[in-house]
Amino acid sequence: MIAKIIVKCIIYNKKLNRFLLIKRCESDDTGADTWENAGGNIENGETPEEAIKREVREETGITDIRIGKIAYVAILNHELPDLLIVYLCETDEKDVRLSFEHSSFVWADEQQCRSLLPTEIISDFEKNNVFDILKGGT
């Protein structure tokens, strides 16, 4: 059995005290019209950190990204299980240039995150104290 490794990035802008959420296009094969964090598959020869930088640049146009600690790791149960590594990252950039894969973005506070993100992501955020960042925690 071979697991695919997926990296995601919770992008935090300290000046805004918000997380960046991006919305998949309605025609997307996976998760159409749902909100998420930037990220994707690790390509051959990439480290997870290199993949994060590439995915964030491709999906959001943000190039000034500081990769922090791992927020959490999870197993996604698909036909074959996928390993999900979610990093906490920071940027000072506010402007976002979406790729063709996404239709919208928002710099979201906790309430917006809770109303837009799927319940599985909210559950992971709660279990791993991700919202503490917005409350001045680390």
From TrEMBL:
<dbReference type="GO" id="GO:0004081">
    <property type="term" value="F:bis(5'-nucleosyl)-tetraphosphatase (asymmetrical) activity"/>
</dbReference>
<dbReference type="Pfam" id="PF00293">
    <property type="entry name" value="NUDIX"/>
</dbReference>
<dbReference type="InterPro" id="IPR020476">
    <property type="entry name" value="Nudix_hydrolase"/>
</dbReference>
<dbReference type="InterPro" id="IPR015797">
    <property type="entry name" value="NUDIX_hydrolase-like_dom_sf"/>
</dbReference>
<keyword id="KW-0378">Hydrolase</keyword>
<dbReference type="InterPro" id="IPR000086">
    <property type="entry name" value="NUDIX_hydrolase_dom"/>
</dbReference>
<dbReference type="InterPro" id="IPR051325">
    <property type="entry name" value="Nudix_hydrolase_domain"/>
</dbReference>
<dbReference type="GO" id="GO:0006167">
    <property type="term" value="P:AMP biosynthetic process"/>
</dbReference>
<comment type="similarity">
    <text>Belongs to the Nudix hydrolase family.</text>
</comment>
<protein>
    <submittedName>
        <fullName>8-oxo-dGTP diphosphatase</fullName>
    </submittedName>
</protein>
<dbReference type="GO" id="GO:0006754">
    <property type="term" value="P:ATP biosynthetic process"/>
</dbReference>
<dbReference type="InterPro" id="IPR020084">
    <property type="entry name" value="NUDIX_hydrolase_CS"/>
</dbReference>
<feature type="domain" description="Nudix hydrolase">
    <location>
        <begin position="2"/>
        <end position="130"/>
    </location>
</feature>
